[in-house]
Design a protein that fits this description.
By secondary structure, the chain is an alpha/beta fold. 41% of the residues lie in helices and 18% in strands. The longest helix is centred in the N-terminal third of the chain and has 21 residues. The termini are far apart.
C-alpha cells in the first residue's frame, strides 16, 4: 500500500485529512506533530496511524524521519497559521514557515524520493484585491498585507522553484478560509463559537468582543477542503497552482448573526480594538473553476451545518 505523510497531522486540517485518508483506506498514514495537547484531535484514529514528534526546523531530524518513512505523498500542512499573530512575531512566522518547508523539499531532493508533495499556500497571498478583480483566479496579482502572507508566498514559490530546478513532483494549492470543529479560537469563527459556549455556561459575561465585522471571506468547511487536498495530489498537474474555495463570500457579521441565532443566550456585541489588524483585506472571493474543471470537486457541506458543528464542538469542551 502507498504511504502518505501529513505534517501538522494533529492540527485542525491535518486531523480531518488523516481521518479522510484512513476512511478511504488507500494509503498507510504517518504524521508529524509538535504539540502533545493536540493529539486529542486524533483519538478516533490513533491506532490506525503512525505518529512522529518532530521539529521540522531541525534539518537532520527531518531528513532522517522522512527518509525512514519514504512516503509516496507528502501533505505539508504544518505552519504558523495566524495572520494576526504574524504582525507581533514577523520573524518567527517567516523563519518557521519557510525553513520547515525548505527542510522537507531538501530532504526529498537529497534522498531522491519519488514523492508527490502538496505545498499548502493561502489565499492571503492575494491580499489587497481591487473589487474589479473579484472573484480571484490564479492569475490575480499578489499584494500581501501581513508577514504571514509573505511567508506563504515564499512557500508557494519555493514549491514552484523546486519543481522547475529539480523536477520535484510539486502541486501547490491556495486554500481560502476553511472553518469547522477543532479550529482554535485564534480564528474568528472559532473565537465566536468558543465565547458563545462560555456565555451559555455562565463562564463569561454576555458580551462578545469583536474586531472588523465588515470583511468578507470565502468560507469552506474543513472536511470539504481536505477532500480537495487529496484530489490535488491525485489529479493535479505537477508545477501548477490551484485556488480552493466555495466561490461565495460572507461578511463576518453575517456569520456571527447566524451563530448568535443558534444560541438562546442574550449576547451583546462590543468592538475590541485589540482584535483589529494593522491592515485587513476587504474581500477575498475564490474563483475555483480551474480546480473544479480538473477534478469535479465541489464543497458539499452547507455553511449552516459547519457553524452548528463548530458551536457544538466548543459546547462539548467548555
Amino acid at each position: 500500500m502507498r504511504k502518505a505523510l501529513i505534517t501538522g497531522i494533529s492540527g485542525f486540517a491535518g486531523s480531518f485529512l488523516a481521518e479522510h485518508l484512513v476512511s478511504k483506506d488507500v494509503a498507510e498514514v504517518s504524521g508529524i506533530y509538535n504539540n502533545e495537547a493536540s493529539i486529542s484531535n486524533l483519538e478516533n484514529i490513533r491506532n490506525k496511524i503512525d505518529l512522529v514528534k518532530l521539529d521540522l526546523l531541525d534539518e537532520r531530524e527531518t531528513e532522517e524521519t522522512i527518509g525512514n518513512i519514504k512516503p509516496d505523498f507528502i501533505f505539508h500542512l504544518a505552519a504558523l497559521t495566524s495572520p494576526k499573530d504574524s504582525f507581533d512575531a514577523p520573524f518567527e512566522t517567516l523563519q518557521n514557515n519557510i525553513r520547515a518547508q525548505l527542510n522537507i523539499l531538501e530532504t526529498v531532493r537529497k534522498l531522491d524520493l519519488d514523492a508527490k508533495v502538496l505545498v499548502v499556500s493561502s489565499a492571503e497571498v492575494y491580499g489587497l484585491v481591487e473589487e474589479e478583480d473579484l472573484p480571484i483566479d490564479e492569475k490575480t496579482g499578489l499584494m500581501p498585507t501581513s508577514p504571514y502572507a509573505v511567508s506563504k508566498i515564499t512557500q508557494d514559490f519555493l514549491g514552484l522553484q523546486y519543481y522547475l530546478s529539480y523536477n520535484l513532483k510539486i502541486i501547490r494549492v491556495r486554500p481560502f478560509n476553511h472553518i469547522g470543529p477543532r479550529q482554535i479560537d485564534k480564528f474568528v469563527i472559532g473565537a465566536f463559537a468558543k465565547k458563545i459556549a462560555e456565555i451559555e455556561k455562565g463562564k463569561r459575561e454576555p458580551i462578545l468582543p469583536v474586531g472588523n465585522l465588515e470583511s468578507k471571506r470565502d468560507f469552506t468547511d474543513v472536511r470539504d477542503m481536505v477532500r480537495a487536498y487529496v484530489l490535488a495530489l491525485e489529479k493535479g498537474k505537477e508545477g501548477e497552482v490551484y485556488n480552493l474555495g466555495s466561490g461565495k463570500s460572507y461578511a463576518i457579521s453575517e456569520l456571527l448573526k447566524k451563530l448568535l441565532s443558534m444560541s438562546s443566550a442574550k449576547i451583546d456585541i462590543e468592538v475590541d480594538n485589540s482584535l483589529l489588524r494593522p491592515s485587513d483585506n476587504p474581500e477575498l472571493l475564490c474563483d475555483p473553476s480551474k480546480f473544479v474543471k480538473l477534478t469535479g470537486w465541489n464543497p458539499g457541506i452547507p455553511i449552516k451545518k459547519t457553524l452548528e458543528d463548530t458551536l457544538d464542538y466548543w459546547r462539548n469542551i467548555i
